[in-house]
Amino acid sequence: MSTQTVTATSTPLKIRRLTYADLPQVIALERRAFPTPWSLAMFVLELSKSSGVCLAALRDGELVGHMICSRYDTVWHLMNIAVDPVQRRQGVATALLNELIERIGGADGSAQITLEVRPSNKGAIALYERFGFRSAGRRRRYYQDNGEDALVMWRTPATLAGRLDDIPNVAL
After folding, report:
1. Where are the domains of the chain?
2. Which residues belong to the active site?
3. Count of alpha carbons within 13 Å of 151, Cβ hemisphere only?
4. What's the CATH fold of domain 4-160?
5. Mean pLDDT for each consecutive 10-residue tract of the chain (172 residues)?
6. Most buried of the four, 20, 40, 93, 111, by CB within 10 Å?
């Protein structure tokens, strides 16, 4: 697929496939971004799957964000999106989501994508809603660090049309 370049600040942002060589930077970013970061083994497992989409966002050659999305039959599961805290609100997550949607053929709205997000993460929820994701329920006590629920969100042809009547009930 194409490499996407976005200028959110004075320095362009480059989006490309995440590689094993990126993992030291990914792990460091995870530790800065999340109270319960993914382990190295989790990233290795996701990178080993041929059906997934794993993306890196780089600015000035430094990894400033990453995304992991796995495919389960006809549904995509956005499992991890992280942006370095000092790079937030500069278009990194938006660029990653745009590239993901382009790569999975979702620009026409046909791809079904789901994710979990903390209800307290208002910025992420607003971002996902701009991309057509809608809340479809909760996973109780999903987050290990504080027992917070997860808000389950979906992006489907129905949510893009403003309806919630056709959100899949898929166990992931």
Report:
1. 4-160
2. 116, 128
3. 16
4. Aminopeptidase (3.40.630)
5. 48 94 97 93 95 95 96 93 94 96 84 94 95 91 87 90 70 43
6. 93
